[in-house]
Design a protein that fits this description.
BB2672; single chain; AA_synth_put; Amino acid synthesis family protein; alpha+beta
Amino acid sequence: MPDVQLRRMIYSVEEIFHEGGPPPETPLRRASALAIVANPFAGRYEPDIQWFMEPLKPLGLTMARKLVELLGGADQVQGYGKGAIVGTDGELEHGALWHAPGGYAMRELLHDSKAIVPSTKKVGGPGTRLDVPITHINASYVRSHFDAMEVGTPDAPRAGEMALALVMSTGARVHDRAGGLAAKDIKGEDGLR
Protein backbone atom coordinates (compact mmCIF):
# COMPACT_ATOMS: atom_id res chain seq x y z
CA MET A 1 0.00 0.00 0.00
CA PRO A 2 1.82 3.18 -1.15
CA ASP A 3 1.82 6.38 0.87
CA VAL A 4 0.18 9.51 -0.45
CA GLN A 5 2.55 11.31 -2.80
CA LEU A 6 1.93 15.00 -2.16
CA ARG A 7 3.18 17.54 -4.71
CA ARG A 8 1.66 20.82 -3.49
CA MET A 9 -0.55 22.35 -0.81
CA ILE A 10 -2.44 25.55 -1.53
CA TYR A 11 -4.29 27.52 1.14
CA SER A 12 -6.57 30.47 0.52
CA VAL A 13 -8.59 32.80 2.77
CA GLU A 14 -11.33 35.19 1.65
CA GLU A 15 -12.85 38.01 3.71
CA ILE A 16 -16.21 39.26 2.44
CA PHE A 17 -17.11 42.73 3.67
CA HIS A 18 -20.34 43.20 1.69
CA GLU A 19 -22.13 42.09 -1.48
CA GLY A 20 -23.66 45.45 -2.33
CA GLY A 21 -25.59 45.93 0.90
CA PRO A 22 -24.60 47.23 4.32
CA PRO A 23 -21.34 45.77 5.68
CA PRO A 24 -21.91 43.28 8.51
CA GLU A 25 -20.40 43.87 11.93
CA THR A 26 -17.98 40.98 11.27
CA PRO A 27 -16.87 40.03 7.74
CA LEU A 28 -17.56 36.51 6.52
CA ARG A 29 -14.39 34.47 6.17
CA ARG A 30 -13.98 31.41 3.97
CA ALA A 31 -10.84 29.30 3.73
CA SER A 32 -9.81 26.49 1.40
CA ALA A 33 -7.09 23.87 1.39
CA LEU A 34 -6.13 22.14 -1.85
CA ALA A 35 -3.75 19.15 -1.88
CA ILE A 36 -2.25 18.02 -5.18
CA VAL A 37 -1.52 14.29 -4.90
CA ALA A 38 -0.53 11.45 -7.21
CA ASN A 39 -3.44 9.24 -8.26
CA PRO A 40 -2.25 5.65 -7.67
CA PHE A 41 -4.93 4.35 -10.09
CA ALA A 42 -4.23 6.69 -13.01
CA GLY A 43 -4.16 5.12 -16.45
CA ARG A 44 -5.95 1.89 -15.64
CA TYR A 45 -9.15 0.44 -14.25
CA GLU A 46 -8.57 -0.98 -10.78
CA PRO A 47 -11.44 -2.85 -9.12
CA ASP A 48 -10.07 -2.52 -5.56
CA ILE A 49 -9.59 1.15 -4.69
CA GLN A 50 -11.02 1.53 -1.18
CA TRP A 51 -7.68 0.90 0.50
CA PHE A 52 -6.50 4.37 -0.61
CA MET A 53 -8.88 6.05 1.86
CA GLU A 54 -6.75 4.98 4.82
CA PRO A 55 -3.53 6.76 3.74
CA LEU A 56 -5.61 9.87 2.91
CA LYS A 57 -6.84 10.25 6.52
CA PRO A 58 -3.68 11.99 7.89
CA LEU A 59 -3.75 14.37 4.92
CA GLY A 60 -7.38 15.24 5.69
CA LEU A 61 -6.53 15.98 9.31
CA THR A 62 -3.54 18.14 8.35
CA MET A 63 -5.67 20.17 5.94
CA ALA A 64 -8.56 20.54 8.40
CA ARG A 65 -6.22 21.67 11.20
CA LYS A 66 -4.75 24.34 8.95
CA LEU A 67 -8.21 25.63 7.99
CA VAL A 68 -9.26 25.81 11.64
CA GLU A 69 -6.07 27.76 12.36
CA LEU A 70 -6.63 30.13 9.41
CA LEU A 71 -10.16 30.89 10.60
CA GLY A 72 -9.17 31.54 14.22
CA GLY A 73 -10.20 28.29 15.93
CA ALA A 74 -12.86 25.60 15.77
CA ASP A 75 -15.36 27.79 17.60
CA GLN A 76 -15.30 30.21 14.64
CA VAL A 77 -16.27 27.60 12.01
CA GLN A 78 -19.94 27.35 11.05
CA GLY A 79 -19.80 25.88 7.54
CA TYR A 80 -17.86 23.24 5.61
CA GLY A 81 -17.55 21.35 2.34
CA LYS A 82 -15.20 19.14 0.34
CA GLY A 83 -14.40 18.25 -3.25
CA ALA A 84 -12.00 16.62 -5.68
CA ILE A 85 -10.74 17.23 -9.20
CA VAL A 86 -9.39 14.03 -10.76
CA GLY A 87 -6.81 14.35 -13.53
CA THR A 88 -7.70 13.04 -16.99
CA ASP A 89 -5.96 9.66 -16.57
CA GLY A 90 -8.24 8.92 -13.62
CA GLU A 91 -11.96 8.43 -13.16
CA LEU A 92 -14.65 10.16 -11.15
CA GLU A 93 -14.77 7.28 -8.65
CA HIS A 94 -11.20 8.05 -7.59
CA GLY A 95 -12.43 11.43 -6.34
CA ALA A 96 -15.10 9.66 -4.27
CA LEU A 97 -12.30 8.20 -2.15
CA TRP A 98 -11.94 11.67 -0.56
CA HIS A 99 -15.46 11.58 0.97
CA ALA A 100 -14.58 9.79 4.21
CA PRO A 101 -11.01 11.05 4.85
CA GLY A 102 -11.91 14.68 4.11
CA GLY A 103 -15.31 14.73 5.79
CA TYR A 104 -14.44 12.89 8.97
CA ALA A 105 -11.29 14.97 9.44
CA MET A 106 -13.33 18.18 9.59
CA ARG A 107 -16.07 16.70 11.74
CA GLU A 108 -13.49 15.37 14.21
CA LEU A 109 -11.99 18.83 14.72
CA LEU A 110 -15.29 20.70 14.83
CA HIS A 111 -16.62 19.41 18.13
CA ASP A 112 -18.73 16.52 16.94
CA SER A 113 -20.50 18.44 14.17
CA LYS A 114 -23.71 16.73 13.08
CA ALA A 115 -24.35 17.55 9.41
CA ILE A 116 -23.06 15.55 6.48
CA VAL A 117 -20.24 17.36 4.69
CA PRO A 118 -21.46 18.39 1.21
CA SER A 119 -19.27 17.36 -1.68
CA THR A 120 -18.60 17.67 -5.38
CA LYS A 121 -16.12 16.16 -7.80
CA LYS A 122 -15.20 16.17 -11.46
CA VAL A 123 -12.56 15.03 -13.92
CA GLY A 124 -10.44 17.75 -15.52
CA GLY A 125 -6.99 18.91 -16.48
CA PRO A 126 -4.64 21.62 -15.19
CA GLY A 127 -6.47 24.83 -14.41
CA THR A 128 -9.84 23.17 -13.82
CA ARG A 129 -11.86 25.05 -11.21
CA LEU A 130 -14.31 23.50 -8.77
CA ASP A 131 -17.12 25.15 -6.82
CA VAL A 132 -17.07 23.39 -3.44
CA PRO A 133 -20.49 23.53 -1.73
CA ILE A 134 -20.75 24.72 1.86
CA THR A 135 -23.49 24.01 4.41
CA HIS A 136 -23.87 24.54 8.16
CA ILE A 137 -21.81 22.10 10.27
CA ASN A 138 -24.76 21.02 12.44
CA ALA A 139 -27.86 21.29 10.23
CA SER A 140 -27.90 20.87 6.47
CA TYR A 141 -31.21 22.76 6.11
CA VAL A 142 -29.88 26.10 7.37
CA ARG A 143 -30.44 28.07 4.16
CA SER A 144 -28.36 31.08 5.22
CA HIS A 145 -25.21 28.95 5.09
CA PHE A 146 -25.76 27.49 1.59
CA ASP A 147 -22.64 28.79 -0.12
CA ALA A 148 -19.66 27.70 -2.21
CA MET A 149 -15.99 28.50 -2.59
CA GLU A 150 -14.12 28.13 -5.84
CA VAL A 151 -10.83 26.22 -5.76
CA GLY A 152 -8.22 25.37 -8.36
CA THR A 153 -4.69 26.11 -9.51
CA PRO A 154 -3.19 26.65 -12.98
CA ASP A 155 -0.85 23.64 -13.01
CA ALA A 156 -3.05 20.91 -11.51
CA PRO A 157 -4.31 18.34 -11.58
CA ARG A 158 -1.94 16.82 -14.09
CA ALA A 159 -3.22 13.69 -15.84
CA GLY A 160 -1.98 11.34 -13.10
CA GLU A 161 -2.96 13.52 -10.14
CA MET A 162 -5.92 14.52 -8.01
CA ALA A 163 -6.64 17.89 -6.39
CA LEU A 164 -8.35 17.27 -3.05
CA ALA A 165 -10.17 20.19 -1.42
CA LEU A 166 -11.54 21.11 2.01
CA VAL A 167 -13.40 24.35 2.66
CA MET A 168 -14.65 26.02 5.86
CA SER A 169 -16.52 29.25 6.56
CA THR A 170 -17.26 31.38 9.61
CA GLY A 171 -20.94 32.06 8.99
CA ALA A 172 -23.87 32.78 6.76
CA ARG A 173 -23.75 34.59 3.42
CA VAL A 174 -23.16 38.26 4.14
CA HIS A 175 -26.67 39.44 3.18
CA ASP A 176 -28.66 36.25 3.71
CA ARG A 177 -32.40 36.86 3.65
CA ALA A 178 -33.82 33.83 1.86
CA GLY A 179 -35.61 32.52 4.97
CA GLY A 180 -35.78 28.93 6.13
CA LEU A 181 -34.34 27.40 9.27
CA ALA A 182 -32.19 29.92 11.16
CA ALA A 183 -28.89 28.87 12.74
CA LYS A 184 -30.19 29.97 16.14
CA ASP A 185 -33.07 27.48 15.82
CA ILE A 186 -30.98 24.37 15.11
CA LYS A 187 -31.92 21.37 17.22
CA GLY A 188 -28.88 19.41 16.06
CA GLU A 189 -30.45 15.99 16.55
CA ASP A 190 -30.04 14.49 13.09
CA GLY A 191 -27.73 16.80 11.13
CA LEU A 192 -30.65 18.10 9.08
CA ARG A 193 -32.51 20.54 11.32
